[in-house]
Every structure is written in structure tokens, then in C-alpha cells.
Design goal:
Helices cover 36% and strands 27% of the residues. By secondary structure, it is of the alpha+beta class. Strand 1 and strand 2 form a beta hairpin. Helix 1 crosses helix 2.
């Protein structure tokens, strides 16, 4: 099984951020997010469109594993809205954008490991059932 290496790139504008990492459609953003007011290089809040606890908790966990991150938390403003807010604060020497990019890359790498492990176990099981 051939694995394609995905890299996250974060394109920043005045308020909108496009997270691009799709190997087939690189011009289509995987995640659309807005940088909320009051941000600086070491502390910022982002609002992710069409996301919920699934991405929020996993991304928060991966970002907090970075020793250069002081705080990371997420919230869902209202259950009827498909929006997720993420707050990142970093120590001096790194930016919130670097921490977000690293968190997304680490999460994609973790998903690749889970997919590979599952696929291998499924194939081994199928082979053992065929041998019987």
C-alpha cells in the first residue's frame, strides 16, 4: 500500500486562514478557520467552520504535547452551530501559527499510523480466515 506524504501549509491573510493539505486537490482547503480579534504572535483564538468535538479534542491534545505551547483549549459556542473555537498560547520563541501547523501535521501523522495498523490487522485477519 502506497502512502502519500501530506504536509500542512497555513496561508494567512488579514482574518481568514486556509489550511491546505489535500494531496489530490491542493487548492481546496481542508479546514477553513477565522482568526478571532485580539490575536498576536504568541496568543490567538481561531474559529473553525464545520468542525466539532471530533477535531477539537484531538487537535487540542496534539498541540498540548508541544513543549513550546503554554495553553491550548477549545470550545463549541453552541450545539446548533457547526463551529469550534480553539485558543492557543505559546511561550516566546514560537508562534501560534507554528504550533497550529505542527499540531495538524502531528494529528495527520497519528491518523496515518492508525490507518496503517488497522489495515494491516484487517489483512492479517482476512488471510488467517482464508487459510482455514
Amino acid at each position: 500500500m502506497e502512502q502519500t506524504q501530506q504536509q500542512t501549509s497555513i496561508e494567512t491573510g488579514p482574518q481568514r486562514i486556509r489550511v491546505v493539505s489535500h494531496p489530490i486537490f491542493p487548492d481546496d482547503p481542508i479546514v477553513n478557520t477565522t482568526k478571532l480579534p485580539g490575536a498576536n504572535e504568541t496568543a490567538a483564538s481561531f474559529q473553525f467552520d464545520q468542525e466539532d468535538h471530533t477535531l477539537g479534542n484531538a487537535l487540542r491534545f496534539m498541540i498540548m504535547k508541544n513543549p513550546e505551547v503554554e495553553l491550548c483549549g477549545y470550545s463549541i459556542p453552541h450545539p446548533s452551530e457547526a463551529k469550534m473555537n480553539l485558543r492557543i498560547q505559546t511561550y516566546e520563541g514560537t508562534t501560534v501559527y507554528d504550533a497550529l501547523e505542527k499540531g495538524l501535521d502531528d494529528l495527520m501523522d497519528l491518523c496515518d499510523v492508525v490507518t496503517t495498523t488497522f489495515t494491516d490487522a484487517r489483512d492479517d485477519f482476512a488471510a488467517s480466515m482464508d487459510a482455514q
